[in-house]
Amino acid sequence: MHGLKGERVLMRVHIGERDKHKGKPLYAAIVELLRARGYAGATVYRGIMGFGASTTVHSDRIEVLSLDLPIVVECIETSERIDAILPELDEMIGGGLITLERANVIVYRPHSASDADRTHVEG
């Protein structure tokens, strides 16, 4: 189990939904890389609207429908582990943005069977 409590780094990778790496979605390749390296976790968010360096607006609104919606991959880890993965991410990412910020982790633990019991509502 990761000893993740305390001061850590939140990395956000901003890319497009259509971005690829070796034929697969870039966001999936990033998550698989982080998982293979034993990072604490990663989450992928799909945006409903945004623009980046190209200033092209990407949206899920029907009148400006885009097939390249914004994607954000987040990962919280130690500063050393984030620094170690950045060169590989830089090679994988064509256009995009990577940001880092400090995060104070309060709780990090997997769900347990007792958690499922507590949230189950009898009908």
What does this molecule look like?
Helices cover 26% and strands 33% of the residues. The longest helix has 14 residues, at 79-92. It is an alpha+beta fold. The N and C termini lie far apart (35 Å). The chain has a single domain (6-119), classed as Alpha-Beta Plaits, CATH 3.30.70.120. It contains 3 helices and 8 strands, in the order E-E-E-H-E-E-E-E-H-E-H. It has a 4-stranded antiparallel beta sheet. The protein has a two-stranded antiparallel ribbon with strand order 2-3. The mean pLDDT is 85.
List the helices and strands and how they pair.
Blueprint: E1 6-16, E2 20-21, E3 24-25, H1 26-36, E4 43-46, E5 49-50, E6 58-59, E7 70-77, H2 79-92, E8 97-105, H3 113-119
Antiparallel strand pairs: 1-7, 1-8, 2-3, 4-7, 5-6
What gross morphology would you assign? globular
On the 0-100 scale, what is the average pLDDT? 85
Order of helix and strand elements from N to C terminus: EEEHEEEEHEH
**CATH class group:** Alpha Beta
Q: Give me the count of strands.
A: 8
Q: Total domains, how many?
A: 1
Helix fraction bin: 25-40%
Distance between the termini: 35 Å
Question: How large is the count of helical segments?
Answer: 3
Largest sheet: 4 strands, antiparallel
Q: Any idea what the radius of gyration is?
A: 17 Å
CATH topology: Alpha-Beta Plaits
Return residue spans where pLDDT drops below 50 for at least 5 consecutive residues: none
